[in-house]
Design a protein that fits this description.
By secondary structure, this protein is of the alpha+beta class. The chain has 2 domains: 123 residues, Rieske Iron-sulfur Protein; 65 residues, no CATH class. Helix content is 11%, strand content 25%. The strands form 4 sheets. The chain has a 4-stranded antiparallel β-sheet with strand order 2-3-4-9, with no helix packed on it. The protein is elongated. Bound molecules: FE2/S2 (inorganic) cluster (FES). FE2/S2 (inorganic) cluster binds next to loops.
Length: 216
């Protein structure tokens, strides 16, 4: 997919928050080379992974506190992409020595990144996940599933719970998945498909797993 074909004015998940530490992590997001790291106090930063001098990937350089030192000639950039040291230039620091920085935000165990115009980044636009911190709700927050396909196929699959009874026969099919109606809510910027299933016996497979857990 060409990088111009992505929607840029929105928040994306760059990865799980725990995956980013005080080291330089290089990623390609929407076709952009990005380097992500945390300052010693945990503050995350995301910069274009290219030094403005000779375009060496900054991820090949050194993380020094909350700043990145280019591994070629030592230009050093803070988390906003501003050059704060130019060892071979002396003063003043070259004005054009500025790296693009991407707004980032830790939320829901993910690191979110805004790939559009930074001036439009509003953390209130990060998708709301009701009850995420409600201790009476359970959540699955472990692991990741790598899928070798266009991400839109995954979106399509997850918006289609009506396939569960026929595709997932070895896991969570059953328990009304074949006849309970779906609720479809059309939003201004998307659609939510959901289904609540009450008063049904759980699928045989899941019941067996639950039984094993209880025995343990
Ligand atoms: S390429 Fe980065 S300082 Fe020269």
């Amino acid at each position: 997919m060409h990088s111009n074909q992505f929607m840029r004015e929105c928040w994306y998940v760059a990865g799980r928050s725990a995956d980013f530490a005080d080291k330089l992590t290089a990623l390609t997001l929407l076709g952009d080379a990005v380097v992500i790291y945390r300052a010693p106090d945990g503050t995350p930063s995301a910069l274009e992974d290219a030094c403005p001098h000779r375009k060496l990937p900054l991820s090949k350089g050194n993380l020094k506190g909350g700043a990145v030192e280019c591994g070629y000639h030592g230009l050093t950039f803070d988390g906003t992409g501003t050059c704060i040291a130019a060892p071979t230039q002396g003063d003043p620091i070259p004005k054009r020595a500025q790296v693009r920085s991407y707004p980032v935000e830790d939320r829901y165990g993910f690191l979110w990144i805004w790939m559009g115009d930074a001036a439009n980044a509003d953390t209130a636009k990060i998708i709301d996940i009701p009850n995420f911190d409600n201790p009476s709700w359970g959540k699955t927050a472990l692991g990741a599933l790598d899928i070798a396909s266009n991400y839109l196929f995954v979106v399509d699959n997850l918006l289609d719970p009506s396939h569960v009874a026929w595709v997932h026969v070895t896991s969570f099919a059953g328990a009304g998945t074949d006849h309970r109606p779906l609720d479809i809510e059309v939003l201004e910027d998307g659609v939510i498909v959901s289904r609540w299933i009450f008063s049904e016996t759980g699928s045989a497979i899941l019941s067996r797993h639950a039984g094993i857990r209880r025995q343990l």
